């Protein structure tokens, strides 16, 4: 694991944006794996600014998002589809047919999950996957559990994830209780992973991710098995690293 610690959220965001932009510049049909949440917001802002200033094209880029809530329409301002459209896709020249986000409104979750796995495989797997991390060590929506779930699947969100994510909703009852997420094997099949974490609320999960036992109760610990991962931390997220 390569661990890079910088003084500020701004600095790690521009490093992360650099990884994304370099991938796009070096491989015009690259496959990107993308997260939502608060952490990647600055990275997306920088990517959009650089896109506007420079001659970078996303026309042949394919994207796969990590996860989506079950039961929210694309047009719902809390859906991850809406988030991606607002923060990235509507600002760049990506071909909308190349955007992949699990469909949380599907009538068959099982076939949606199977399809999603097949699409990733058919695309030649993800060249670079960006991850945030939950306070409880979740990656995507792979919550702490008794075992690692390998493939894209339906997940029941933990109450603490619902509580944390309720900041975006009018009331906590509106937060969906379930989601579709890439599985652990799906995540590990990415050729390169960049995990970004900022703030002291992530410090404990980060230290366990880097030097704890590999344990499905701290899902991110499995990332120790990936041989091309970079972890970008601000000082606060790094404060528990021994
Ligand atoms: C979002 C995702 C989640 C978040 C995590 C951290 O697509 O997969 O694992 O990365 O919950 O969220 P923030 O960045 O809001 O702290």
TrEMBL record:
GO terms for cellular component: cytoplasm. InterPro entries: Glc/Gal-6P_isomerase, Glucosamine6P_isomerase, Glucosamine6P_isomerase_CS, NagB/RpiA_transferase-like. NCBIfam families: nagB (TIGR00502). Pathway: Amino-sugar metabolism; N-acetylneuraminate degradation; D-fructose 6-phosphate from N-acetylneuraminate: step 5/5. Keywords: Carbohydrate metabolism, Hydrolase. Belongs to the glucosamine/galactosamine-6-phosphate isomerase family. NagB subfamily. Its EC number is 3.5.99.6. This is Glucosamine-6-phosphate deaminase. The gene is nagB. The lineage of its organism: Bacteria, Bacillati, Bacillota, Tissierellia, Sedimentibacter.
């Amino acid at each position: 694991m390569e661990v890079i610690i910088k003084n500020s959220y701004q600095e790690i965001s521009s490093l992360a944006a650099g990884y994304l932009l370099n991938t796009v510049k070096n491989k015009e049909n690259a496959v990107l794996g993308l997260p939502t949440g608060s952490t990647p917001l600055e990275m997306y802002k920088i990517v959009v600014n650089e896109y506007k200033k420079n001659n970078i094209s996303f026309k042949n880029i394919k994207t796969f998002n990590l996860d989506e809530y079950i039961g929210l329409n694309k047009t719902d301002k809390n859906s991850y589809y809406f988030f991606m459209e607002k923060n990235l896709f509507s600002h760049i020249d990506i071909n909308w047919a190349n955007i992949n986000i699990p469909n949380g409104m599907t009538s068959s979750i099982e076939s949606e999950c199977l399809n999603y796995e097949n699409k990733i495989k058919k695309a030649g797997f993800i060249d670079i996957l960006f991850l945030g991390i939950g306070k409880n060590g979740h990656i995507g929506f792979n919550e702490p559990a008794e075992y690692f779930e390998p493939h894209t699947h339906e997940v029941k969100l933990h109450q603490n994830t619902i509580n944390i994510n309720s900041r975006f909703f009018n009331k906590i009852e509106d937060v969906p209780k379930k989601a579709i997420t890439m599985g652990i094997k799906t995540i590990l099949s990415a050729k390169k992973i960049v995990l970004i974490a900022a703030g002291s609320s992530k410090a404990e999960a980060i230290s366990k991710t880097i030097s704890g036992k590999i344990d499905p109760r701290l899902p991110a610990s499995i990332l120790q098995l990936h041989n091309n991962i970079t972890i970008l931390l601000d000082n606060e997220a790094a404060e528990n690293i021994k």
